[in-house]
Amino acid sequence: MITQKQRRTEKGLCFKHYYKWILCFSLTLYFVASFFVDHDQEDHPSSSLSPSNPLITNPKPKPLPSRAMFESKIHNQRLSFPLQRPNIRTDVFNNLKIYVYDLPSKFNKDWLANERCSNHLFAAEVALHKALLSLDGDVRTEDPYEADFFFVPVYVSCNFSTVNGFPAIGHARSLINEAIDLVSAQHPFWNRTSGSDHVFAATHDFGSCFHTMEDRAIADGVPRMLRNSIVLQTFGVTYKHPCQEVENVVIPPYISPESLRKTQKNIPAAKERDIRVFFRGKMEIHPKNISGRFYSKRIRTEIWRSYGGDRRFYLQRQRFAGYQSEIARSVFCLCPLGWAPWSPRLVESVALGCVPVIIADGIRLPFPSAVRWPDISLTVAERDVGRLGDILEHVAATNLSDIQKNLEDPSVRRALLFNVPPREGDATWQVLEALSKKLNRSVRRKSNDVL
Ligand SMILES: *[C@@H]1O[C@H](CO)[C@@H](O)[C@H](O)[C@H]1NC(C)=O
Ligand SMILES: *[C@@H]1O[C@H](CO)[C@@H](O)[C@H](O)[C@H]1NC(C)=O
Ligand SMILES: *[C@@H]1O[C@H](CO)[C@@H](O)[C@H](O)[C@H]1NC(C)=O
Ligand SMILES: *[C@@H]1O[C@H](CO)[C@@H](O)[C@H](O)[C@H]1NC(C)=O
Ligand SMILES: *[C@@H]1O[C@H](CO)[C@@H](O)[C@H](O)[C@H]1NC(C)=O
């Protein structure tokens, strides 16, 4: 029924004014996605989906290292890190074992025919899957009977509309339900726990609600089939919200590490940051009331009105493929909410050393135990956005250099990026770490009493 309705909406877009607004409304967050169209793919699906990856192995289990040892190890290897082979060992995560279902290709690999599928800002669903597959013979197990968790790889964000290029997620619920039907019919593991040890990714606006419009997302809620499971989602708020009424881990949106590397390579080493405050993105001058909501709660409109003529602020409303180089030139990068509170700018700002200025009340940020967000970013309350200029001046005069120094810590940048294969400390690593804290859901642990 949802799919039907969505389909009708898509069709209506071409002719009806009203539907034009639905288009703007539901798809705004996606505009950044098209920036990635022209990026080279770092990894080729065929190779990363191949059955074995000899690079990552650690046949001998080692005694569990203490947390302190583990962290100092990361610290010591920091400088040489990029040259290191990935070495994600099961002992680090309390012998966590994940089984990745091999679903028919229509649930995942077929979508990769479109290169954008693995590069746009919702592509964490793809990157995580590839990363887990590349953990052959280690955290990933091919024996489901020894698994703690079961990853169900369904790509729901790659059905790009032929009309506007934005992902249509109207089919998400039915695709996921179909995958669960299949998995529960063919394997005994789903029924054993009603899916509580099964893991999904939900990487678009409102996470496990699988709808791009918040009122619809809230009305639909988390699909019944998923409610016992663990969802890795980009959406997260600190208050009660129907789209996180499920065991969840907040993950960062996907930014291609390769695109960031390219941007960094093109920055002259000693270049000063000549832009004081940067924002490029949708800033509506007259936002419309859609189902009682205004885009960005009119925060971006207020930024434009208050600072559009302010020389300290470099505000742009048009798309520009080279916007990452602008971030690299900026001191402060605004990360205001859109429809959803989260923003790809957060990851890009951190990765490129621009102090993120988060304007999204109640946002829950990814991996707080790995990324000390208060040390590397600024949070400005939505109601204070009219004082942004003063607030940033104050910070520039007091603790800006402290924040910038904290931002230089490579472990912070690394934690927000998905690599294939994964690297120690990166986003996939953080997901594994988070899952290792949920091992009381593991049937294997309960029966063996190893916890
Ligand atoms: C993809 O989205 C279109 C609408 O844009 C819809 O008609 C089509 O059924 C979707 N494809 C799948 C496989 O769900
Ligand atoms: C799991 O339960 C469903 C619904 O009760 C049933 O159709 C399916 O056959 C069961 N799966 C297995 C492997 O027994
Ligand atoms: C927005 O529209 C809703 C009806 O959809 C209405 O109840 C509400 O008062 C409007 N809000 C504003 C600020 O205009
Ligand atoms: C910097 O100062 C601002 C207030 O001016 C404060 O909110 C913020 O927490 C400080 N950050 C750090 C890392 O000291
Ligand atoms: C697992 O532990 C967490 C607290 O760490 C608790 O909230 C949760 O209810 C436990 N789950 C099960 C299935 O025991």
From TrEMBL:
It is a single-pass type II membrane protein. Keywords: Glycosyltransferase, Golgi apparatus, Membrane, Signal-anchor, Transferase, Transmembrane, Transmembrane helix. It comes from the Eukaryota. GO terms for cellular component: Golgi membrane. Pfam families: Exostosin_GT47. The chain crosses the membrane at residues 21-37. Residues 95-394 form the Exostosin GT47 domain. GO terms for molecular function: glycosyltransferase activity. This is Exostosin GT47 domain-containing protein. It comes from Brassica campestris (Field mustard).
